[in-house]
Each structure stands twice: as structure tokens, then as C-alpha cells.
């Protein structure tokens, strides 16, 4: 990552990051509880909300990639070893890949189950696969495994941010926090 | 000799007053319904039904149809939903196992399109249904009847209790059918 004069992300980048965090938390909360609900209108509603949130995360992930293509991220501390810089780049790439792959797997799973996705009740997404019970079962497993991968990667992401903040005492966490002045300078 | 007589009697007994009865090829025929939940269209199939059709495009007014659907054969692709659909709030198949549509005398609408009218009985309630359809006849003389029409589920008490609210499951349900004549003698679809 090339150095820039900036010491923190732009308001747009910070806003998108935390909105996506909140949406992932909501999608997980709904996803984990909805499967055990007894069949009812409420269950059908919650399934729809879960899918709408997933589509929104997919769209916001694309917006974030567009932001990254148009902006340089703030520089990492010069004290960071090369392996950590590579690890940070790899984990960020993996997070973006999962933010796209998880909604995609959910959409395909829904199509294979014979239930199209109608975003916000307004826009019907095309069914990329036809109704197929065996494929639906496979895609369900894929959806679950990818979410487990996201959970683990997100935990590493958070642990790394906290380590930067409390152990290394650098500005890596504060540059992504809203309303808080970033720490000054490199350690 | 008695065998010939028996076959002749059977033919007379089975022949409706108007056009000659046609054998339905159940392997190539389908009756489905598309319900809408949270604006999401979901298709389900009625896997067992019987259809007695007699239709001559030259004399649509002499045609007749009787279609009986085994409602327990409703299949939406999810066993959880299938079980719910067979229950009291929906089809209540224990008390009302079959839906039935009877029609005599179709009307030509022009351009190969026709319209059948008749009572549609589901779950102990009967309302008149208007069923538009097309007919295509192939070289072997087999006819394909295709059509779709809407029913309002609440008219028949389908989806009661917590399901009455049409914000989640819409009142209007599309019934679609493709009935192909020819092939083997009448038999229920397995």
C-alpha cells in the first residue's frame, strides 16, 4: 500500500465499513434464528429480510471495491514487518471475496430451492440455476461453510486491529473509527 | 362374442354426450400453481390428478372437461411446507381430499384460444371459474391443452388462521395446466 498524506480513511470508507459490519451482524442473527422458526408468515418475512440484507451487503461490497479502486488507503505504520503487511492484504482480500461469495451462494441456494429472490419485494433477481434438491443441499452447505470462514476471518481482523491499538499502539484502528481523532504519527 | 359386446358397452358407457372422450397422457401433463409470498412467486405441482376431456376444436360448445386433483399430492419442493399445505389451515385434505373442476361447452375466443367455464370446488366451497386455454394438435392427432387462470385462495378458505393476512401470502394464486391427450389408456400418475 502506497503512502499517502492521509492518516485515516475517508468518511465514505468508514461509513461503508461500519454499515456492512452492522448488516453482517443482522444477517447472522436472522440467519441463525430463522431456520428453527416454525412455519409461519413471520418465518417467510424473516427469510425475505435475510435475503434483502445479503443482497445489500453484496452491493455495498462492490461499492467498497469501487472506492478502493479510486482511492489509496492510508499508509500502514512503517514499523510493520513485511509478513504482517502481506497478511493484512491477504485477509482484506479474503474478506471482500467472502462478502461477495456469501450472498451469491445464498442467492443460488434460494433459486435451487425453487424460491426466487425479490430484492426489497421490488426487483426479482434471475434464477441462475433451476430447482434442484441435491444442488440446493450442496449450496446450503457452501453457504454455511463460507459464513464460518467469514466468522473466523472477521475474528482475526478484529484481533489484529485490537493488537495494533493496544499492543503496538499505532493508528491502524483509529483510522477506521468514526468521530475519533486518529493517533498521530507512526510508532 | 361376449367380450366384444362388453367392450362395446364400455365404449357407450364412457362416451360423453358431445365430443368423443380423449385419453390423457399423464406423463406429459402437468397442473401447477404459483402462489406469491413476500412478492416472491413460488411454483408447486399437483402430482396426482385425473382429467376426463372431450374436445373437438370444430365444435367447442360440445366439449366437456372434468378434472379432479388429489390435493395431498401438492408438492412445493419443501416437505415442511407440503405438510403445512395438507393441514386444516390450507387444503385440509383429511376432510376435503380432492378439488374438482367441471365444465361443459367451451367458447371459441378466436386465434386458437378458447374459454371454459364451470364450477371449481375446493375445500367444500364452490365458485365459478373462467379458464382460458389454447389447443394444439400434433400430426398424430394428440392435443395439448394449455392455460392459466387466477383463483382467490381466501374465497375457498385456503390459508386460514395466521395465514389469512395477504401481506405475506397474496390472495391471488395462478393455476397453470398442460394436459396432453394420447398415449396410454387412462391411469393415475404414480
Task: Write a structural description.
- The complex is a heterodimer of chains A (187) and B (190).
- With 187 residues, chain A is an all-alpha fold.
- Chain A contains four helices and two strands.
- In chain A, strand 1 and strand 2 form a beta hairpin.
- Chain A is elongated, with a radius of gyration of 19 Å.
- The mean pLDDT of chain A is 92.
- With 190 residues, chain B is mainly beta.
- In chain B, strands 1, 2, 3, 4, 5, 6, 7, 8, 9, 10 and 11 form an eleven-stranded antiparallel sheet that branches.
- Chain B is elongated.
- Classes of the chains: A mainly alpha (187), B mainly beta (190).
Principal-axes geometry of chain A comes out as elongated
Query: In oligomeric terms, what are we looking at?
Result: heterodimer
Helix % of chain A is 55-70%
Strand content of chain A: under 5%
Low-confidence stretches of chain B: 9-17, 184-188
N-to-C order of helices and strands of chain A: HHHEEH
Determine Rg of chain B (CA atoms, Å).
18 Å
Give the topology, please.
The complex is a heterodimer of chains A (187) and B (190).
Chain A: H1 11-34, H2 41-70, H3 82-112, E1 118-119, E2 123-124, H4 133-168
Helix pairs in contact in A: 1-2, 2-3, 3-4
Chain B: H1 2-14, E1 30-37, E2 40-46, E3 49-54, E4 64-70, E5 74-75, H2 79-86, E6 98-104, E7 107-110, E8 113-122, E9 125-137, E10 143-152, E11 172-180
Antiparallel strand pairs in B: 1-2, 1-11, 2-5, 3-4, 4-6, 6-8, 7-8, 8-9, 9-10, 10-11
Short recap of the structure:
The complex is a heterodimer of chains A (187) and B (190). Chain A is mostly helical and 187 residues long.
Amino acid at each position: 500500500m502506497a503512502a499517502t498524506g492521509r492518516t485515516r480513511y475517508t468518511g465514505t470508507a468508514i461509513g461503508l465499513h461500519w454499515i456492512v459490519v452492522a448488516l453482517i451482524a443482522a444477517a447472522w442473527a436472522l440467519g441463525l434464528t430463522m431456520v428453527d422458526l416454525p412455519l409461519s408468515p413471520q418465518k417467510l418475512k424473516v427469510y425475505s429480510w435475510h435475503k434483502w440484507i445479503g443482497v445489500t451487503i453484496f452491493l455495498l461490497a462492490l461499492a467498497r471495491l469501487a472506492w478502493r479502486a479510486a482511492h489509496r488507503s492510508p499508509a500502514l505504520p512503517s514499523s510493520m514487518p513485511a509478513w504482517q503487511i502481506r497478511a493484512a492484504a491477504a485477509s482484506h482480500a479474503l474478506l471482500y471475496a467472502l462478502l461477495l461469495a456469501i450472498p451469491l451462494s445464498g442467492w443460488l441456494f434460494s433459486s435451487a430451492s425453487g424460491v426466487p429472490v425479490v430484492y426489497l419485494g421490488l426487483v426479482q433477481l434471475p434464477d441462475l440455476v433451476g430447482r434442484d434438491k441435491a444442488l440446493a443441499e450442496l449450496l446450503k452447505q457452501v453457504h454455511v461453510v463460507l459464513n464460518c470462514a467469514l466468522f473466523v476471518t472477521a475474528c482475526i481482523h478484529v484481533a489484529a486491529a485490537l493488537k495494533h491499538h493496544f499492543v503496538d499502539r499505532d493508528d491502524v484502528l483509529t483510522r477506521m473509527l468514526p468521530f475519533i481523532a486518529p493517533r498521530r504519527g507512526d510508532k | 362374442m361376449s367380450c366384444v359386446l362388453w367392450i362395446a358397452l364400455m365404449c357407450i358407457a364412457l362416451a360423453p354426450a358431445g365430443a368423443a372422450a380423449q385419453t390423457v397422457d399423464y406423463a406429459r401433463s402437468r397442473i401447477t400453481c404459483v402462489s406469491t409470498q413476500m412478492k416472491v412467486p413460488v411454483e408447486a405441482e399437483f402430482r396426482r390428478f385425473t382429467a376426463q376431456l372431450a374436445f373437438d376444436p370444430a365444435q367447442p360448445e360440445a366439449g366437456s372437461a372434468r378434472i379432479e386433483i388429489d390435493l395431498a399430492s401438492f408438492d412445493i419442493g419443501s416437505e415442511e411446507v407440503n405438510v403445512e399445505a395438507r393441514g386444516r389451515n390450507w387444503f385440509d385434505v383429511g376432510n376435503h381430499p380432492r378439488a374438482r373442476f367441471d365444465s361443459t361447452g367451451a367458447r371459441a375466443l378466436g386465434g386458437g384460444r378458447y374459454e371454459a367455464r364451470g364450477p371449481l370446488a375446493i375445500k367444500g366451497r364452490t365458485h365459478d371459474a373462467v379458464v382460458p386455454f389454447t389447443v394444439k394438435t400434433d400430426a398424430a392427432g394428440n392435443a395439448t391443452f394449455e392455460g392459466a387462470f387466477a383463483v382467490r385462495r381466501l374465497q375457498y378458505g385456503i390459508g386460514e388462521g395466521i395465514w389469512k393476512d395477504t401481506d405475506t401470502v397474496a390472495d391471488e394464486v395462478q393455476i397453470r395446466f398442460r394436459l396432453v391427450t394420447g398415449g396410454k389408456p387412462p391411469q393415475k400418475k404414480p
